[in-house]
Backbone:
């Protein structure tokens, strides 16, 4: 038999996490790119022995939601200096600092050196934290992140992993057990755009020399946009650009250019997969335009850590209120023609 797509899982439910590809003991799975710039597993039936490991490890086919802890929900604000560097209220920084103070490693999303994509990287000091801070509305490349995390955990190192809930769930499936020295943070994720769309946008917008001169990119720079307003801020060596209505943000916000599996994501709910969940608290009453985090504690481990960092913030228990965020529920509405967008993605400019 020839190569076929893995058909036990609806392709629209596959997040392309690569866990099945990485754990297959027979190298029977490869990842192939679709016309929508996402990767899905293809199985070589000549190599496959039907061992079932890929099904057992697939987070989309299994339930990784936390069920043993009554959630606690907080409105949290770090100090103003941290908040102004952060997308929301600065809780990620407080959690990262806790890990650094305990000789641990933080794994989160950074722009690649050429700015054409984003990837998960490891850092173990506070001076590199700016690389991971701030929302990046681009699908991150996980690479061998899960393999490296398992090695670190086996070496008794403290590791904090931050990512979209589908990535956290994929990590839990890959590891198959809980580790006391692993802290997982899932983000309130509305949806995400494939990397190649970001690369196309950047190359349409800037020359190669301008991209080489890029020093900083931010989707949530509070000095330029405040807390709520969206846009992209670019700083080059000798100039800067502020884009408030870019074609990229339109493709993201109207969901024309996001991954198909995001449209009906099973993780867009109050039940969570991470030890701690973080995002914007748009229901805040005391508004100062500096950002406020909504923090959901989902496990005993997450609660233990929060109790240790909360003294470095202003916090309010809002468990009874259950504030709303788009990443916690509701359906996604596509406000454009997705088929037309992807059919013409490689023929026309983003604009």
Residues:
């Amino acid at each position: 038999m020839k190569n076929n797509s893995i058909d036990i899982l609806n392709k629209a439910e596959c997040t392309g996490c690569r866990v099945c590809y990485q754990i297959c003991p027979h190298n029977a799975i490869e990842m192939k790119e679709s016309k929508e710039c996402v990767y899905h597993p293809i199985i070589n039936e000549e190599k496959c022995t039907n061992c079932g490991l890929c099904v057992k490890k697939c987070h989309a086919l299994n339930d990784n939601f936390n069920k043993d802890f009554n959630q606690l929900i907080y409105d949290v604000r770090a100090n103003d200096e941290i908040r102004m560097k952060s997308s929301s209220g600065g809780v990620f920084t407080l959690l990262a600092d806790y890990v650094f103070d305990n000789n641990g490693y933080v794994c989160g999303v950074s722009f690649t050196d050429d700015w054409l994509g984003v990837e998960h990287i490891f850092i173990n000091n506070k001076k590199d934290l700016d690389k991971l801070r701030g929302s990046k509305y681009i699908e991150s490349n996980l690479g061998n992140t899960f393999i490296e995390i398992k090695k670190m955990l086996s070496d008794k190192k403290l590791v904090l992993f931050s990512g979209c809930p589908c990535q956290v769930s994929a990590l839990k499936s890959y590891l198959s057990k809980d580790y006391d020295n692993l802290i997982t943070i899932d983000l309130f994720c509305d949806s995400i755009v494939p990397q190649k769309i970001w690369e196309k946008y950047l190359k349409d917008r800037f020359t190669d020399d301008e991209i080489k001169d890029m020093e900083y990119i931010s989707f949530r720079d509070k000095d330029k946009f405040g807390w709520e307003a969206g846009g992209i801020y670019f700083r080059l060596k000798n100039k800067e650009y502020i884009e408030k209505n870019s074609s990229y943000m339109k493709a993201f916000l109207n969901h024309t250019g996001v991954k198909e599996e995001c449209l009906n994501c099973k993780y867009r709910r109050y039940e969570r997969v991470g030890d701690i969940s973080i995002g914007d608290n748009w229901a805040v009453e005391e508004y100062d335009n500096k950002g406020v985090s909504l923090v959901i504690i989902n496990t005993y481990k997450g609660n233990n850590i929060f109790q240790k960092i909360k003294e470095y913030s202003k916090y309010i228990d809002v468990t009874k209120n259950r504030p709303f965020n788009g990443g916690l529920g509701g359906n996604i509405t596509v406000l454009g023609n997705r088929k037309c967008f992807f059919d013409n993605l490689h023929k026309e400019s983003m604009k």
User: Anything to note?
Assistant: The chain has a mean pLDDT of 94. DSSP finds twelve helices and 14 strands in the chain.
